[in-house]
Amino acid sequence: MKNMFVYGSLKKGCFNHSLISENSRNRLIRKGFISGYKMYLLYSYPALKPSSEEDKISVELYSLSDEVFERIDKMEQRANYVPVEVEDDAGKKGIIYLYKGEVKESNIVLFGNWTRKNEKLNIVD
User: Fold this and answer.
1) Which of helix, strand or coil describes residue 84?
2) Largest CA distance in the chain
3) What is the DSSP letter of 89?
4) How remote is the C-alpha of 69 from its chain's centroid?
5) Which of 37, 50, 87, 117 is the one with CA 20 to 30 A from 97?
6) How many CA atoms lie within 13 A of 33 on its CB side?
7) What value does the mean pLDDT of the chain take?
8) Which superfamily is assigned to 2-111 in CATH?
9) In this predicted model, what pLDDT tens digit does every residue of 17-56 receive, in sequence order?
10) C-alpha angle with apex 5: 27 to 52, nearest 5 degrees?
11) Domain range summary for the chain, segments of one domain joined by +
12) Can you name the residues that pair with 108 across neighbouring β-strands?
């Protein structure tokens, strides 16, 4: 089992959450925040980039089976994301994925909180 923070399409209620919920061994550990990152809109999913410590992102921390973790890891890395280990506001550690590509400041997701309504937005050129 491995810990992974999710902040976008993998969150409960979002379109990729079935990758987590389909395996009964996976479980939600907690909801919380990680500091030092900003969230940006990329089509129907978000991207994280490092920023100042006062910036916070809303996350869900899951304990995932090795099989599910590897499946999500491949999906994220194919989409130009890189895994890094971070710690949340309660000191819990896990992997989170940062976007390696370019983002536009005009596409920032306010308050670092991804919701289902964000999935219907379009990237601003």
Assistant:
1) strand
2) 41
3) T
4) 13
5) 117
6) 13
7) 90
8) Gamma-glutamyl cyclotransferase-like (3.10.490.10)
9) 999 999 999 999 999 999 999 999 887 789 999 998 889 9
10) 155
11) 2-111
12) 40
